[in-house]
Known about the structure:
It is a single chain. The chain is mainly beta. It is built from no helices and 24 strands. Strands 17-24-23-19-20 form a five-stranded mixed beta sheet, with no helix packed on it. The chain has a four-stranded antiparallel beta sheet with strand order 1-2-3-4, with no helix packed on it. It is elongated and about 80 Å long. The N and C termini lie far apart (146 Å).
Amino acid sequence: MACAAYDGYLYALGGTPDGSTSLTDNAIYDIDGNSWSTGTAIPYGFMWGAATALADGTIWIAGGYTTFGTELATVEIYDIAGNSWSAGTSLNTGRAGLGLATDGETVYTYGGGWYTYLTTVEYYDDSKGSWVAFSDLLNTGRRTFGFDFGSGFMVAIEGYNGSYSNAFDYYAFEPTVASINPPSGETDDAAVAVTILGTNFVDGETTVTLSGPVSKADIEGTNVVVANPGELSCDFDLTGAATGGYDVVVTTPAGEDTLAAGFEVTEAADDDDDDNDDNDTGDDDNDDNDDNDTGGDDDDTGADDDDNDDAAADDDNDSGGDDDDDDDSGCGC
């Protein structure tokens, strides 16, 4: 039978009880619940084929036999949520005992050929709606082998090609760089954290470099963390870095890719400009109406409480009209 796993469930598809009779079974195992259930049956008998689950919630099966004699090129696609099957685009070459695997988006098939032991590889190009021959071949043609993807690479292990084989094929995909965020940083910033999107990043074996013209020194990324084959993060120390554009270069054991002029080092912002800041020449210490004004303040020289405006009309210094005046020489009363 062919098997695939998705979101906590294992799918056991087709198979043969006696080596020649093909089954249409779709048995589903709930790993957490430790229980089996039955999904919609495969549209035809399916044995010695292969299966793989995609990130979009579908399972693809391909190749194999319904009865011995003609190796199938057919592809069927199982919609997990809808519990239904639909026909996919057939392979270019019928294959039994093939390998089928995906990086989550693109499906690849390797080898197979019950008696012919193929070395050829195909992948499904969604933009073209067809299977395309892959440029690299298996080193050793064989069938009924282990085949799967890692982080930016795929492997084919052992198998059979007239005798049992211990062959090990490893293929690493070259990385691609699609974007960097943020796309700029200020010179003399000692820690600019960025996120880079692309494909085929390899955990523990990926480096990132900002590469400028000859006049600019390269800037190596530090603390590189590959979250998954399509996303990584790292830091750049821009201390003393020349301003201007830099290429973003991502390198893995399989090769490198460049995002031309993808990052720019800019001048540091000036916090001491002369407009409305704490050092302006028209600031709060020179206001027209502050406590040290020379006019209109609390220490005016005129109209204050201690005026000496008049020498007359004081209550205590009048020269006439007071109670002790000796106005008449007579009466004395």
